[in-house]
Amino acid sequence: MDGARSAAGRRPTEWRDFLALTKPRVMSLVIFTGLCGLLAAPEQINPVLGFTAILCIAIGAGGAAALNQWWEADIDAGMRRTASRPLPAGRMDRTSARDFGVALSGTSVFVMGLAIGWLAALILAISIVYYSVIYTVWLKPRTPQNIVIGGGAGAFPPLIGWVAATGHITAMPVLLFLIIFMWTPPHFWALALFVQSDYAKVGIPMMPVVAGEAVTRRLIMLYAALLLPLSLLPCFIPARLGGAGSLYGWVAGVCSTVFLAASIRVGLRRRNGEADTMKPEKQLFAISIIYLFALFGALVAAKWIQG
Fold first, then answer.
1. DSSP letter assigned to residue 11
2. Which residues contact 261 (CB under 8 A, 6 or more apart)?
3. Which of 6, 68, 77, 131 is the most exposed place for a label (fewest CB within 10 A)?
């Protein structure tokens, strides 16, 4: 942090700043997919324990996000999209952010282990380390494949929710993990396309910065195409093992086709210059979020209908 952000000129930290460290908008998707994994599992869990499990997933995700912002405070300060976050804006010191992240992460894993089970706690701990260390410290500043490999960090919640309910791992939660893993690159690269100047300015090797827009657009189409058949595989899992059924299959087929169509529109597009609004890229980013909510919502609806 530069001298202009010194403690002398900093206003007192508010609770809103600590909340902002947890990336609430990202956390909402984490909570939703984790809850869907828990509800779609073939075994029921006590509602109090289920709430505890989802709370631990949320707190763990918030802790990882806080550690991410602690490590990347200087990078965030150089990007318009992130300059208003608590650390680069000077509303909080880095030590407080680090301690907050460690406290949330440790508490979530410890409570998950005691209340739910140590397998779920272990996977939660792996997800926190994956995001805050493997992705943030190692992958993101070093390789344009950061989002591809790092996508696993956001794919853990439904797996954790499923294990919290059942106590074990089967093919179905692994498929849910893989769906989010495959969804992440086109979702994030759509964002990276219209904020690539920010990443270039701070030296982060995102795919559009290193490989160029044309390659990134082709990769978006490729991952969206691979996601379509992958999203249908839960239909082929037996119902007794948590398979999704035909309702989910129809929703997954329609939503994945729409997602692929939006990806193709972005993939085949050529920009007209700096004044280009990049509306299709922004639309794909929004569609990708709706897609994941619809897909996992259908998964739970199918479970209730089968039940």
1. P
2. none
3. 6
Measured between alpha carbons, how far is residue 175 from residues 96, 135, 145 in Å? Answer: 38, 22, 22
Rg of the chain, C-alpha, whole Å: 20
User: In terms of Cα–Cα distance, which of 136, 121, 157 is closest to 29?
Assistant: 157
Total residues belonging to the chain: 307
Residue with tokens 């989802």, as numbered in its chain: 54
Q: Angle 151-152-153 (CA atoms, 0-180°, nearest 5)? A: 90
CA gap 254, 136 in Å, rounded? 34
Distances (CA, A) of 216 to 3, 142, 152, 250, 270: 38, 17, 19, 29, 12
Question: Tell me, what DSSP letter sits at residue 237?
Answer: S
Dig out the tokens for 65 from the structure.
């996000």
How is residue 217 annotated by DSSP? H
Q: Tens digits of per-residue pLDDT, 125-170?
A: 999 999 999 999 999 999 999 999 998 999 999 999 999 999 999 9
Six-digit token string for 148: 């591809």
Do residues 177 and 233 make contact, with C-beta atoms less than 8 angstroms apart? no
